[in-house]
């Protein structure tokens, strides 16, 4: 046994066990987040409950959102009447009833003893809407232009409503946006040169174009004004739902397994590709995905050359003196600074000082409304570039140190300058280490939230940083981020129960985005490593 310990085998097994345990824990956590998030999009069955609450019998229709076993003692301490409950524990059901505009809450809690019967609701429809969340009810008829028609015509009505909404969105994001952009440019010219007759004529022409687009929008909205769906809710009341507010309808209890899988995939696609709505508790997260990826790519473009140049100076040019040691200590210490401190620095230096100076010099005609002197995606990328700079510097310097000096000496002996040696020999051979530093930087930057709250991220961004208006790339705009979206939905949402599955789904999506970015960088690194390994041989 003593020889076994002296051989070091126990420590090898201990290390392997710890790594395996950590890997299992991480994979288990990812599976839990994925299951909790992706199961939200599955078409859950809708039940009809006949309940008796405090002597009042009623019918409740909804999805079983959560089932939990609670102790009778705990219910008694909470002030619940437990006189009719037998035993020490009882099941408590959280039912999602939807129909937010007709009931106070779209969730209701029922005890097992309050339910007289439970059965699948035959032919129940789940209707997804732009406002007020989902509606559960029994469709009666479809009203097309004021005329009652069979329910079979609803699919055509939903398709027409979607086409109208798409056309309205195009008009708002292209025509109206272009007119507003030209009006802003005209206002700036008037501030610089004063009001001129040609400016007045241009404004009149723009006003006429705006009035024409506005009339077109009004005509589109009136096209669906008389289209509606008559639905009977759980209390038997007939409700008229405007078609223009309806996004989708499905019958969860009538779907086959393949239809449920297709519906599940469709809902995930909408979650990834649509804009959020209802205070981020409904809809998709596409602006947050775009903002996260775009900000990380912009940060990578900034931090890589800065980190590589700093590492080249420290390893190739700087002498071994106290000043160089001080720089190395400073770089190491920068890696341990809390991220919120970087956010405060970015707000004070980049936003107020640099951005304010840019506004004074180049955008004085737009003041007091700031252009760059306000948080935006550029300042967020610069802040995170400084935050991740030590990682890139250390990784690149380690890569430079692994290159034998004989390679440098051989290049210099053949007549190359030191700069040519660095550019053509050393840096290509150190590129795998540079990519390693970039991978670590991306992994940290993509998940940071605290500094971004100060320098550019917002709850809801009206437009993306990229559009078809000159200069097409708007680095001064605020943006959405998946990490902040998780924080907002999880802790700032007015409807916590409805938002909880979206927290899991968005968390799983954020991990997926980070893994995707890292795998791309790892693939590039491995390609470079194999390329220069063959050159060495």
From TrEMBL:
PROSITE patterns: ABC_TM1
TM region(s), chain numbering: 12-35, 285-314, 326-352, 372-394, 425-446, 502-524
A cellular component annotation (GO) from this entry: plasma membrane
Membrane topology term: Multi-pass membrane protein
UniProt xrefs under InterPro entries: MetI-like (IPR000515), MetI-like_sf (IPR035906), Phosphate_PstA (IPR005672)
GO biological process assignments: phosphate ion transmembrane transport
Principal localisation: membrane
Keywords noted in UniProt: Cell membrane, Membrane, Transmembrane, Transmembrane helix, Transport
Origin: domain of life: Bacteria
The keyword Nucleus belongs to this UniProt entry's keyword annotation: no
Residue ranges occupied by any ABC transmembrane type-1 domain in the UniProt entry: 289-521
PANTHER family according to UniProt: PHOSPHATE TRANSPORT SYSTEM PERMEASE PROTEIN PSTA, PHOSPHATE TRANSPORT SYSTEM PERMEASE PROTEIN PSTA-RELATED
Family: Belongs to the binding-protein-dependent transport system permease family. CysTW subfamily.
Protein name, per record: Phosphate transport system permease protein PstA
Native source organism of the sequence: Photobacterium chitinilyticum
């Amino acid at each position: 046994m003593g020889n076994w310990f002296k051989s070091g085998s126990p420590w090898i097994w201990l290390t392997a066990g710890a790594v395996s345990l950590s890997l299992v824990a991480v994979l288990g956590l990812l599976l839990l987040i994925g299951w909790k998030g992706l199961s939200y999009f599955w078409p859950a069955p809708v039940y009809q409950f006949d309940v008796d609450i405090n002597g009042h019998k009623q019918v409740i229709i909804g999805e079983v959102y959560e089932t939990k076993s609670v102790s009778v003692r705990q219910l008694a301490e909470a002030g619940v009447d437990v006189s009719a409950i037998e035993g020490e524990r009882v099941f408590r059901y959280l039912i999602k009833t939807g129909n937010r505009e007709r009931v106070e809450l779209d969730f209701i809690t029922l005890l097992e003893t309050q339910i007289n019967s439970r059965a699948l609701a035959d032919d129940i429809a789940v209707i997804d809407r732009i406002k007020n969340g989902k509606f559960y009810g029994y469709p009666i008829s479809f009203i097309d232009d004021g005329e009652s028609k069979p329910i079979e015509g609803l699919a055509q009505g939903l398709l027409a409503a979607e086409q109208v909404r798409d056309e309205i969105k195009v008009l708002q994001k292209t025509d109206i946006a272009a007119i507003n952009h030209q009006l802003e440019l005209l206002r700036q010219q008037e501030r610089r040169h004063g009001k001129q007759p040609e400016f007045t004529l241009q404004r009149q022409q723009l006003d006429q174009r705006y009035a024409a687009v506005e009339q077109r929008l009004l005509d589109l909205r009136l096209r669906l004004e008389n289209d509606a769906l008559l639905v009977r809710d759980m209390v038997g009341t007939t409700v008229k739902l405007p078609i223009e507010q309806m996004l989708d309808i499905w019958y969860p209890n009538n779907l086959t397994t393949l239809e449920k899988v297709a519906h599940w995939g469709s809902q995930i696609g909408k979650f990834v590709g649509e804009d959020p709505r209802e205070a981020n508790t409904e809809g998709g997260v596409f602006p947050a995905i775009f903002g996260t990826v775009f900000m990380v790519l912009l940060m990578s473009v900034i931090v890589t050359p800065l980190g590589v140049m700093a590492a080249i100076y420290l390893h190739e040019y700087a002498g071994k003196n106290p000043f160089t040691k001080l720089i190395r200590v400073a770089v190491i210490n920068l890696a341990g600074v809390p991220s919120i401190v970087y956010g405060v620095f970015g707000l004070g230096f980049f936003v107020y000082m640099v951005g304010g100076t840019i506004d004074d010099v180049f955008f004085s005609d737009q003041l007091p409304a700031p252009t760059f002197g306000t948080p935006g995606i550029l300042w967020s990328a610069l802040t995170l570039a400084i935050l991740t700079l030590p990682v890139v510097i250390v990784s690149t310097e380690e890569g430079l140190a692994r290159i034998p000096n004989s390679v440098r000496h051989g290049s210099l002996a053949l007549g190359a300058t030191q700069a040519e040696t660095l550019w053509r020999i050393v840096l290509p051979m150190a590129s795998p280490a540079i990519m390693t530093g970039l991978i670590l930087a991306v992994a940290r930057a993509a998940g940071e939230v605290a500094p971004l709250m100060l320098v550019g991220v917002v709850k809801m961004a009206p437009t993306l940083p990229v559009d078809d208006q000159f200069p097409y790339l708007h680095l001064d705009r605020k943006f959405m981020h998946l990490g902040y979206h998780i924080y907002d939905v999880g802790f700032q949402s007015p409807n916590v129960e409805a938002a909880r599955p979206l927290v899991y789904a968005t968390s799983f999506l954020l991990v997926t985005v980070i893994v995707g970015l890292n795998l791309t960088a790892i693939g590039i690194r491995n390609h470079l490593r194999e390329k220069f390994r063959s050159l060495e041989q």
